[in-house]
Amino acid sequence: MFADVRERLTAACGTVRELITGYNWFATEHSKEAIDTERSDVHASGRVEQLLNEWVKLARAKALAANGKIFAARDEILTLLQPQK
Fold this sequence. Notes:
Elements: H1 3-29, H2 41-45, H3 47-66, H4 70-81
C-alpha cells in the first residue's frame, strides 16, 4: 500500500476505536447494548479482502483507461460484475 493511504487508515482506525469506546461508555451508563470489540464480523466474513480486491481492480481499470487501453479497462470492470466464488 502507499504510505499516505496507510497513514490515513491507521488514523481512521484510531478514530473508530475512540468512537466505540465513547459509545460503549454511553451504552453502559444508559443500559444500552455495547459494541463487542472482541469479535470481528468484517474480518471473519472476508469482506475486507473483497473490498480491497474491488478497490485494486477499479484502480487498475482507471489506469488502463487513462493509458488508452479501453477494452482492457472494460474487461477489468467486468470481472467485478461476475459472481464471486
